[in-house]
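Work Package 3 (structural annotation) set out to generate three-dimensional models for the target panel prioritized at the project kickoff. During this period the team completed the workflow that converts sequence records into discrete structure tokens, so that structures can be stored uniformly alongside our sequence database. As a representative example, we reproduce one entry of 157 residues exactly as it appears in the project archive.
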Amino acid sequence: MEIKTGYLYHIKDEYFDVVNDDSLMQNHERGKKRPTYFTIRDKNILWFVPISSKIDKYQKIIDKKIEKYGFCNTILIEKIFNEDSAILLQNTFPTLEKYIDHVHTVDGKPARVPEKLEELILKDFIELMKLHNRGIKVFFTDIDKIKDKMLKELNNK
């Protein structure tokens, strides 16, 4: 399976056991393949951005951030396949291809977000990574620690 930026995927429960990080959004229930993740390919590392249907919950957070900072680029609420979805950039984490369970499908076809939305997500992700690299905490989990763990796995093949 070729993993591409802009498509939606599901992750294996095994990933959460290996990483063992309570700050990650977990698969809802063992055996259920949710949430769905927007994927960004960065060479051998895949960045997974959780997608949630809990619009009311995340709209309140967005509103508070806008009130405090004048904007919010850590959570987006956009339509994905005609449904409002919260795109949780603040919950992004790195993973590897081997931890992908399957591609999300709609009407039997691999699910890809619209190109304009993909561009928006990538723009915000790049901005958040710049802030992160300057030492500003924008991600809930320690993405550097997890990325190092994933790179070590790759090098120990």
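The chain has one domain: 8-155.
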